[in-house]
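Lecture notes, part 5. Sequence design as translation. It can be helpful to think of inverse folding as translation between two languages: the language of shapes and the language of residues. The source text, in structure tokens, appears below.
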């Protein structure tokens, strides 16, 4: 589903990612564990095409996406949930969720929205509220719902549990479990995998921009 080979990237002249190799098999939920500043967000942004790597390759479902613009990821059915949510505060919840569909002219937008609401009925319950009226945890759910609009094959979730109350963390974990059973591939970053220990199939550790060989947690994902 996703294969990174020898990815190097810098920001403002400072090397951040160093020869990163990473692979996600179809239907696997993979953890990316590292402290703040280790390079997790930079790696996510590089995969999404928001930051161009200095070298290396990004292959998504057999297609070389390294030099392609971010919108090609949506066409490849990849969704991204950034750490800081990046919702438009003056738009409603439903409008925020539909942004990827509008921007990329997704033909199945209505069906995807219905699927999102089926998985997360609590989000449908506040669909007409402005994003700025939501709690931080509720905004995380909306950001996940927005990522799911285009991410029907692969989801990249950057620190989805950070700053979320325990009850909402459990709800997020429940949704991710459902997505996993439906065959989506997921890359999920955390400072540790205390929230996702029961979900992940394997874990990569990132430190100072270098990623270690994966640790197999469960299943045959080799």
């Amino acid at each position: 589903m996703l294969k990174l080979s020898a990815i190097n990237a810098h920001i403002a002249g400072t090397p951040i990612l160093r020869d990163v190799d990473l692979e996600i098999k179809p239907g696997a939920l993979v953890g990316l564990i590292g402290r703040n500043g280790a390079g997790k967000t930079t790696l996510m942004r590089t995969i999404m095409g928001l930051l161009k790597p200095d070298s290396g390759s990004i292959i998504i479902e057999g297609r070389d996406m390294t030099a392609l613009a971010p919108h090609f990821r949506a066409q490849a059915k990849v969704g991204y949930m950034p750490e800081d949510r990046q919702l438009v505060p003056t738009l409603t919840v439903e409008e925020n969720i539909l942004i990827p569909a509008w921007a990329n002219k997704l033909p199945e937008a209505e069906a995807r929205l219905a699927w999102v609401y089926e998985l997360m009925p609590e989000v449908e319950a506040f669909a007409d509220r402005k994003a700025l009226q939501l709690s931080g945890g509720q905004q995380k759910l909306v950001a996940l719902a927005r990522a799911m609009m285009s991410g029907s094959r692969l989801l990249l979730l950057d620190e989805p549990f950070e700053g979320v109350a325990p009850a909402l963390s459990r709800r997020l974990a429940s949704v991710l479990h459902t997505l996993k059973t439906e065959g989506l591939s997921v890359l999920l970053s955390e400072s540790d995998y205390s929230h996702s220990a029961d979900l992940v199939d394997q874990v990569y550790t990132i430190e100072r921009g270098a990623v270690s060989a994966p640790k197999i947690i469960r299943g045959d994902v080799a």
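The translated text above is only one of many valid answers, since several sequences can fold into similar shapes. The chain has one domain: 2-216.
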